Amino acid sequence: MLFKQQALLRQKLFVLGSLAIGSLLYLVARVGSLDRLQPLCPIDGRFGPRSQDEIPLRALQFKRGLLHEFRKGNATKEQIRLHNLVQQLPKAIIIGVRKGGTRALLEMLNLHPAVVKASQEIHFFDNDENYAKGIEWYRKKMPFSYPHQITIEKSPAYFITEEVPERIYKMNSSIKLLIIVREPTTRAISDYTQVLEGKERKNKTYYKFEKLAIDPNTCEVNTKYKAVRTSIYTKHLERWLKYFPIEQFHIVDGDRLIAEPLPELQLVEKFLNLPPRISQYNLYFNATRGFYCLRFNIVFNKCLAGSKGRIHPEVDTSVITKLRKFFHPFNQKFYQITGRTFNWP
Ligand code: A3P
């Protein structure tokens, strides 16, 4: 009798234990994917009729699974057909600015279930050899996506290359253009740091930043130095404005993206007419890296590579002051054209 009762109790405990473990596993999975499983359109219908903005649930589920595999080239033709996957030309391009935070911006936007990034810089519009291969070549470089999703690519050289605005205009005159900028002197030093690291890797010597940024004959800012020229944002933007109206550009504050990424990303979501899906859950500060990192779900998170967030060399304060004074009028013009003011000195 006692033995029978014990067996019954063991059986009950086993059932209860299984139920508890099952519920726990369900909760863990649910929390991890909460972000992905929110209703796709807000109740108040702010983003238009559901049919237009709807992103198929499978797109959300497969964002890091199936699609990821497909991008690595593991998809069979049958899988592509079955899942209705396509390689779409980009609806938005991050055209620059080099060292503005272009990689961070692309990776963070890729957190959005409706966005699929082209992982590599494609350099289609700035490289004559690539451009000569034609638009189909470019499209084939794009990742697989669902028709409801948008593809975004980034090639920072586009911003400063003469021929690019006209070439992009010929592909799609209503494309959305993203430009991420940082305080121009800091950006120039970041640019220098990247080149310096490349030289050091090859055991080559290089000049000090001060020597490159200041003309030794005139003691004025050296406008022939590429890192300086790239930071004259207004000059480059003016070339783009010959082809696209200012409404087609969105300026991202790269300094704010470092310190407080979410509000900057929310502005981009709005500009791209995407329902707001990137949340604080997707971004966490990593004290070791000193930067925000990305959380896709409970299992998958990542920080940017070590080449992003380098330690800059110390630069003579008089050179910094000179550069800031030099950039000041260009910055004022940039604020005026873009309608976005930054607290740059
Ligand atoms: P530094 O290396 O000078 O710090 P780009 O991707 O255009 O080359 O820009 C690189 C810059 O992105 C880095 O410049 C870094 O400051 C900035 N950045 C912005 N957000 C970042 C993040 N979450 N992780 C790493 N770097 C980030």
TrEMBL record:
InterPro entries assigned to the protein according to its UniProt record, in alphabetical order: NST/OST, P-loop_NTPase, Sulfotransferase_dom
Keywords, in A-Z order: Disulfide bond, Glycoprotein, Golgi apparatus, Membrane, Signal-anchor, Transferase, Transmembrane, Transmembrane helix
Lipid bilayer topology: Single-pass type II membrane protein
Gene: Hs3st5
Descriptive protein name: Sulfotransferase
GO cellular component terms, A-Z: Golgi membrane
Chief location: Golgi
Intracellular or extracellular location(s): Golgi apparatus membrane
Residues where 3'-phosphoadenylyl sulfate binds: K99, G100, G101, T102, R103, R182, S190, Y292, K308, G309, R310, I311, H312
Biological source species: Sagittarius serpentarius (Secretary bird)
